Amino acid sequence: MPELPEVETIARTLREGRGAPALLGRRIEDVRVLWPREVHGLAVDAFVAAVNGAYVAQVGRVGKYLIVELQRGAVRRPMLIHLRMSGRLDVLSAADAFTKHARVVWLLDGGLALRFDDARKFGRVYLPEHIDDVVGHIGPDALQIGADEFLQRLRDRRGVLKSLLLDQHFIAGVGNIYADESLFRAGLHPLRAAHTVAENDARALFDAVRAVLFEGIEANGASFDWVYPGGNFQNNFRVYGRTDQSCVQCGRPIQRIVVAQRSTHFCAVCQR
DNA sequence: GGGCATGTTAGCAC
DNA sequence: TGTGCTAACATGCC
Questions:
Q1: Interatomic distance A117 CA / C3 C1' (Å)
Q2: Any residues with CB less than 8 A from the CB of A170 and at least 6 apart, and which?
Q3: Left (φ > 0), alpha (ψ -120 to 50) or beta: where does A125 sit?
Q4: A27: closest CA among A66, A68, A63?
Q5: Which of A103, A110, A159, A256 has the smallest set of CB atoms within 10 Å of its CB?
Q6: Short-list A269, A272, A63, CA closest to A166
């Protein structure tokens, strides 16, 4: 499901509440692991023992990973959650938490629970000693990287632009939707080889990625199927999911091809 | 029933 | 070593 804007929206919701109870400041009283494969890197009993009794000291995001800082006494330990294709996180009444696709449920003080719901079971929960044990191998966050570093990294790569934007080692946070939308706004063809992109076009791509991600966050992410509710950015799609519909700039039909195993939407006239 | 899905990774070929 | 392709993970929707 989620790309950077959706994960950022979830992080803000867990911090601030926004209609639901906030996670920030809550105490974890117990954990139920209903699908053990989603807990990665340590045994379930060790995970439960390490989390029980901790307070949620902070909630953040790096790339598509949610970062929940847990604190017990003076000891802090990060818990990372990746939603993959169909994961979602909600704070709700503990009595309502054990639904069909609940995979991990953290029982909180006040009769509340944090529910990790994940129909497809691809999601992951990590409890490393240090954040970098999990996210150390990915590239800089797409909203943290600067223009110069983006240009440099682009020059150093051989692949095609669409594949590169999806590659979390290149930059972290962009997924299939925002990659297509970024390339359209930059006027660049998804199959363009990265090293053939002139500097002004590379800067246009950098600007487009940031603009699309910020617009996505502003709209609370994109919602267009049963997986992720509450967002509005789907109303601003210019190419994604618009196969055979008219290009908003030139009127020619949007094309769909497959790149890096992912459906890819673009305008053959506007994107070169 | 077939094809599709906002993600990632291991294995393999070049 | 880098890049790209396939399969796998597992389920639900149209």
A1: 35
A2: A139, A153, A157, A164
A3: beta
A4: A68
A5: A110
A6: A63
Global confidence as pTM: 0.97
User: Could you tell me the domains of chain A?
Assistant: 4-135 (3.20.190.10), 147-266 (1.10.8.50)
Distance, angstroms, CA A225 to C1' C14? 11
Nucleotide of closest approach to A85 (CA, C1'): B7
Report DSSP state, residue A204.
H
Mean pLDDT of A129-150: 97
For residue A29, give the nearest of A99, A126, A106 by alpha carbon: A106
Q: How far is CA A246 from CA A185, A240, A241, A255, A268, in A?
A: 15, 12, 12, 10, 12
Q: Which is catalytic among the residues A64, A77, A153, A162?
A: A64
Element (H, E) at A134: helix A132-135
Map residue A4 onto helix, strand or coil.
helix
- A78 among known catalytic residues: no
Nucleotide nearest to A261 (CA to C1'): C5
Among all chains, which residue has been given the structure tokens 């139920």? A32
End-to-end CA distance of chain A: 29
Q: Clarify whether A181 is annotated catalytic.
A: no
Nearest residue to C11, CA vs C1'? A120
Strand C contacted by A198 CB (< 7 A): no
